[in-house]
Amino acid sequence: MTPLEDCVLYAGGYNNGLGGNVVKIYLDDTTFKVSSSGAFSTPRMNLASTTVGKYAFFAGGWDGSDRYNDNVDVIKLVNGTPTLYKTLTLDTPAAFLAGTHLGSLAIFGGGKNADGPVDTITAFRVDGDTVSKVDLNRLGVNLALNSGLSLAGGLGVNTDNVGVEVDA
To answer: Is position 162 within any domain?
Structure first.
């Protein structure tokens, strides 16, 4: 779930089947309203989300059987309707990952997949109407993930040995 403009967007989940739509929750006068859109590329659960500017990002997830997802759906509102703007990819497929933003960057990392803990971070930059994947090596990012699921978003794993350094 992530805020975008004057609403909140929710995607994924499980309710007698995988969630395949983006759900828009908004306030109409004093009443909360809910609408749904087919803007999601692949039904999945246990994904991460964040917002940068006018774009909402929904990354990773799990299909409920054996497929961990590397899709990053970039959603924007078009005439108030959540619309799939672009689908990008994570460096490593993962579920239970964490997502956040820092300035113009949407950042996703950690989690797990069929091989176990995921120790990669993938970032995307918003520049006006352009959304693109960022090469963290070119940004001078020195990343050390020494505790397995350290960025796993609420799994209660020790994060004492996580360090991210960005050279200006």
So the answer is: no
